[in-house]
Amino acid sequence: MRILTWNVNGIRTLPQYYPWSELKTLEAILIHPDIRSDIYCFQEMKIMRPQIDRDKALPGSFDSFISLPTGKGGYSGVAIYVDSTVAKPLRAEEGISGLIQPKPPLSEDERVSKTYPAGNLMDFVADDNDRLPSSLLELDNEGRTLVLDFGIFVLINVYCPADTVKERFPYKMNLHLLLQERVRILVEEEKRDVIIVGDLNMCASILDDGEPILESKKRNWNQKPWNWLKEWVQPIGKLIDVTRRFHPDRAKMYTFWESKKDGRTANFGLRLDYIICTEGLLPWLKGSDILPQVLGSDHCPVYVDLHDEITLEDGSKKTLRDAMKYSEAAPLPRLATRYWLEFSGKQTKISSFFTTKTTEGDRPAKKMRAR
């Protein structure tokens, strides 16, 4: 099974690039051999809800889960597309705080976790006015995270903000802290294995930074925010940088290039896109790499392949499908886009308000059949 993460820099502009320009639907893009995967995690959808048509919501055999910002439209946004013939999430949540809820709110059985981060216990970074986030929801309402439970692992798709604007630095760091705390709860308290994928907008080491060496040193890798990711993954932290594990010494393994500088042509970029997991998933890891030849964005896709079957210590076999508790007949979590009113068939059309209903007395009498 393949999981692919990609900052698409606008799902609606993707068809402007070859070979996607030759395809007519999102489904055709998802099944194209250049990127064919079973689970897609997209960042920077840059789309508003009214612009999401059936093609983007229900692309063939893929179930979709989409989170959009509540404020500024056409900005940020993440999505997960899951091939329903291969996998089906058991539970799904929007955001990582546990505070974004559908109507009616998720029941305890529908929630991914039993416990969620407590803002009053977190050491948040204050802004220039010494202001701290008033609520975790303040960090969680920009359409930057989705959490899906696949049984054997919890998948978190994240789009972290860049640090190019000084005023956004506290928000960036505080979202990192919230993500880190959510993962800690899942791993340490709930004993879950986790896969975190997405655009973290940060380099894990100086090897991932294409800037000249003197410029890289100016970043000061021992200070925030550059030390956050470095301290989260091995060898300092406990989590595994999956792609780097398979290519420990590869230089210039960049996933982002500045378009204005034509950085892609000379491969002058940064590695900002990651697949990170817990050690418990090591036996399932088959391979991971970047796809720099795939065009359509200023980022390139990154993927991880998981074994379909592994041999346990006692010699028995275990399939990934069984470990994921896959059932084709199982209902989808309520967060699925197919349950949005505009796609569920339950939305009342405006025209219906201007249509006169026919009562039984208004109907023409039925003709008697000849006997």
TrEMBL record:
Annotated positions for site Interaction with DNA substrate: H299
Domain named Endonuclease/exonuclease/phosphatase: residues: 4-299
GO term, biological process aspect, one: base-excision repair
Binding positions (Mg(2+)): N7, E44, D199, N201, D298, H299
GO molecular function ontology, one term from the record: phosphoric diester hydrolase activity
UniProt EC number: 3.1.-.-
Pfam family of the protein (one): Exo_endo_phos
Keyword line: DNA damage, DNA repair, Hydrolase, Magnesium, Manganese, Metal-binding
InterPro entries for the chain: AP_endonuc_1 (IPR004808), Endo/exonu/phosph_ase_sf (IPR036691), Endo/exonuclease/phosphatase (IPR005135)
Matching PANTHER family: AP ENDONUCLEASE (PTHR22748), DNA-(APURINIC OR APYRIMIDINIC SITE) ENDONUCLEASE 2 (PTHR22748:SF4)
Name of protein: DNA-(apurinic or apyrimidinic site) endonuclease
